[in-house]
## 1
Amino acid sequence: MERRSVAVALGLLAGLLLCASLPPWGWWPLAPVGLALWLHLLGRPSRWDRFLVSWAVGVAWFGPSTLWMWGLTQPGYVLGVLLAWGPMVGVLGIVVPPDRRRLLVLPAALVGFEWFHTHAPFGGVPLSMLAMTQARAPMLPIARLGGMLLLGAAVSVTGVALYLAVVERRWREPVALVLGLALVTTVASLPFVRPGSSASGDTVRIVAVQGGGPQGTRFSTGQSPQVFERHLRLTREIEGPVDLVVWPENAINISGSFADHPWRDDLAAEAARLDAPILIGIVEDSPDDPDAFLNYVVVLNPDGSLGDRYDKERRVPFGEYVPLRSLFERIAKDTLPPRDQVPGEGTAAVTAQSCSIDVGPCTAAVVISWEVFFSRRVREGVREGGEVVLNPTNGSSYWLTQVQSQQLATSAMRAVESGRWLVQVSPTGFSAIFDDNGRILDRTGVSEARLLTAEVPRITGTTPAQRLGDLPAVLVAVALVIVAVVLPRRRSGSEPPQTVGVI
């Protein structure tokens, strides 16, 4: 058994392997390697040792992959890594037993950890998830059966298989596990699991507008007019026919109300010229609270009227609002946003009335920026009739491109989960078009000014993940724990049992 200091160092290595498998690095084969090493280290009998090792895994896993938070709140980043993510992963080391049952319990515990991660703290911070390592990997179709959590569980199973093959030199169980994952992936890829196209109007022609500009642009810099002009200039280059134009989140950032702003007239002229609605991302002052703001998208019709609107519900903690503001202002007042966004209460879907008789009205599930990290937001919009998923976002205010890269991976999974094409559009990148298999069909670079155009199928129907959400992954986790509980333990000797199978 390794000395404690060596074990903690190896825990850091395991966490770094998991981190390197995530976007923007994306070396996905390293994920099972990191998990296999972690499994080996969890064989230590001392709970304190297992906590320390797992805390080290958490720090190395989340520290580098959430470095972007430094640009929002430096104290928050340090506290989050050392006292939130690190200890949460450390707790897994306590609940996972040191004997061979850990090969069952760790995958189950990771499902529970990631489920908690999507709900708390502060409504959930679902970043650096195991499933994000698979956005360009063979197992991605599993997300169609059970979403992000089931795909993350599949990653854990590959780690178990690697541990059995390399550390215990057993081959029957790893081969069975790999063949089982291949079978599940194959089933998830079959046509009957995927929903079909809409009967009326097979496709809708969507143009996403990325105006470009320097990364790091924020409203506080006073560059709102330049951001608007970049997007308006590019919109004027669109040539019809087009059914829907999509602008990013925060492309219009104004004082007062957009309904009375002269920029509305400029955009209405473009909607009339194209004879197509424009979905616009707007940030404006809250009419009820001078210390708050609104963040929403609204459909601007070709006749200049305003149509469906959706206000962002899921806000970025420490970016769009400050939880426990009175506490955190004592620590880092100057680095916190001065105003909070008012959370929306509507349904995550809008309907745009195309002027094409062949196309007719198109309903889109809309998740604004951060909301794409929450599968339940996309599921809500699809349940309301969304035939395509739209993700207007604003990555320009983030330091580095870690969030944007993880968002691309998440958007791929949301497309697979929902069985819908997904259009992601950002002011400065990344904007992308995803098909319902999660493949990126077109993508912009950072700071690039560019139009993305796609004939997007209007898809109806549902998938198992869309219908059941996290339930399949939770049931798998519960089943693993039940099996671990009923497994016999060796009653003699001090060594962990080595003769009990894991499947």
## 2
Amino acid sequence: MVFVFALTSASATAAPVAVRFPEAATHGFLVLRGPNGDVLAHGEFVQAPAKGERVESRLTFRFKDGSLWDETLTFTQQRVFRLMTYHQLQRGPSFPEASEVRFDRDTGRYRARVGNGKASEDTIELPEDLHNGLTGTLLKNLPPRASAAGHLLTFTPTPHRLDTQMRVEGEDKFFVGDVARAATRYLLKIEVPGVKGVVASLLGKDPPDVRFWISTGAAPGFVKFEGAMFLKGPRWRVERGPPRWPER
């Protein structure tokens, strides 16, 4: 079922990732499951052209316990993908504490609040290969068997830059009805750079690995996600969710 590629021959992209499949208007529905497969939340993904040459993408999950995950970002796709703005809100009992973060490439500013603490607000230099909220899009655009490097930002509430590596880990089979399909399984490796990374490793607090499944073929598409959606978070699974129709 799983075929492991020879990664030694894969090409590595320093970033940013080049556009192979331009993003367009999209509206889809998702389901989020816990470690035991139980449904925790239902999600909605909406993407559409925004002002100028930007595309706006919004992902929301509404949990059964009343919790909310709401992530909105804008990006450009002239030759390469470039994250421009980001806003993420999480609150409710499914999360250890409420948080809200936002940053803007044009102004170079960020604002973040975690829990009941004081908000952190200042200027920040955003890497060109930053991919908060854009990881799935970048993976769809990687050439076959290619890998890429990038960065993520996390907030405590002060910002911390994480190094990332995205590479092919294998290929898995899934079914649509009785028809077998193939999906490439990507590993997203997250590391804390520098001295902080050494300390985190010694304390056993390395960020957990995350995996994405992207369908193969002429038009690659998201199939599944597995991993933590926030630092020290549980391992959740996100898949496409069919709508439920009322009974007649």
## 3
Amino acid sequence: MGILDGKVAIVTGSARGIGRATAELFTSQGAKVLINDLDTDVAQQTAAEIDGETIVYGGDLTKPGVCDELVAKVIDAWGRIDILVNNAGYTIDAPIHKMTDDAFQRMLDIHSIVPFRMCRAVAPHMREPAKVEREQGVEVFRKIVNISSISGTMGNAGQANYATGKSGVVGLTKTLAKEWGQFKINVNAARLTADKDGDNTMEIDGQTVQLGIPSQMRQLAPALIPMGRPGTPAEAAGGVFLLCTPWADYITGQVLTISGGQFGGMTS
């Protein structure tokens, strides 16, 4: 018996790294999970390797209508949505005086606009059932977890675009927690210090982008993180999973820091 038996989850950017680890943990606990990646082939391979019930949606979530199509596929397959994890993302780093408009806009699109569109797309499938349950006097909790970053709450040199996008999702999280609390929808954020995919890169619209923490930042981990290293994808997924369990039913509008103690005690 799993903690998430019968639940249906969407995890964006779940073919690799933290997203994949989250999807694996969810399925191991009984959830049905949609696997998403820009590269459909990679998403299908991941789904085939995960031991659990999955479906696949490959596509660029920043394009108009794609988030709605993804949600429609889940509803067609399983008829409900209980959990949404907005995880998809990447970085394009540069000092601000050398940063292009395109590089800045891309980070806003994937880290702020896409989570907004995904939350809007799942809204009727989370809010409407909750209205019926409220009339029946029944509490059923649904979960949204938005993945932020230490960069989004503390800033980071060379990442003005990424930090702006990730800080924006924190504001979205806190606002939705206030709007949707009446529907028993827990909306939280997890800010991470995790080595997602090492030096792995991928092509997005003809541009090579970084998917994990750059090697020079990983080398600084012993000095910056009390635990002495970046977190693993599985450790990051554990925090996300915690926010999706019944033990987090009274936690909403919060930012859970999964950082091995990095910046502990500092104002965020």
## 4
Amino acid sequence: MMAKAKKLNVGDLESLEQKSETGDPEAETTLALAYHSGVLLKQNDAEALRLLRKAADRGWMAAEESLGIFLEGGIGVERPEPAEAIKWYEKAALQGSMDAATNMALMYANGIGVGKDAIQAVKWFHRAADGGDATGQYNLALMYLRGEGVPHDYKEVIRWLTAAADQNLVAAILSLADLFLQPPTSEVPADLGKAIKYYEKAADLGNAGAQTTLGTIFARGLTGKPDYDLAVKWYQKAAEQGDPDGQLGMGVSYATGHGVPEDFEEARRLLMAAADRGQTEAQYDFAIMCEEGKGAPADLEAAARYYQLAADRGMVKAQYRYGLLLSKDRESRSSRIAAYKWLTLAEGSIKESSAVMSDLRKSLNEQELAEAEREADNWRSAHKAAAR
């Protein structure tokens, strides 16, 4: 009904208000949703809520469902009223609203307005799923996947994910693709062909993550040998959406000349764009290009900045390269101390760090070495997740 309300124009307002005044629940609900969305130049959530209550009290299913949404979200009221919302969802669900059944199931699953109750969540997800609601099917699959309210059952997981995927629910499509690419259990055999099929389905629906994953599958030759043309096709689609992983893939493609002519300037542009969006691998690759002067004159200041971004996220090879770069600045005490800190952090994984640290120790006194080691310990404490 929201779609219907959004198609209204100002000329429809008078007749709709007249019907609403006669107690027509469909008109009341439509007018309420129009007031909420502001399509009739009258944005008024309090009046929308009043109209929904009138229609819901007459047992109009769409009004009951909408009232539940308003109350759960705190629309037209001082604060959310989830306990009241679930009452209206149940009324609508029992009349056949699959959306209301799904919404109520989510409230039970997350303990919103009621105590967490996985069994009740499964009951209502099942009702919605059996009725063909894709969101209900997807969430029911997740309950079977996690074993919440039902036993773990991967056959049921695949069954309901497939049902939702057949309705083009992207989350379900991606879950199926991931499941077949890297099964979490031997109960589900890996099937690269099925994984690619579902990634392509999501990619064709415009999902940038699926496009990037396809690019990586073909670039790494998971199908038997690399197919850089196909990799570039999918990376490009993701990059055009501003996806940092897609930009990374295209940047590396231009830097290596895989699937496209080698072009360091374009590689730098794409890698920098991804790096500035927080893509750690892109930060590292862009720093190397800045340090080595590929595509533009060498820029050690920029290289240091981007190495540090990746290093601070726990990328060991960036910690090593950053430490190595800093170690070359023998005029700066702070640079030498920082170099020793980052090399200390990288030493456990990159053996070349030890030789550079040994050379650095010749230019650092005991107090400076202690400071560097203390800073390394402080970094580890503050970045436990990254260090792992």
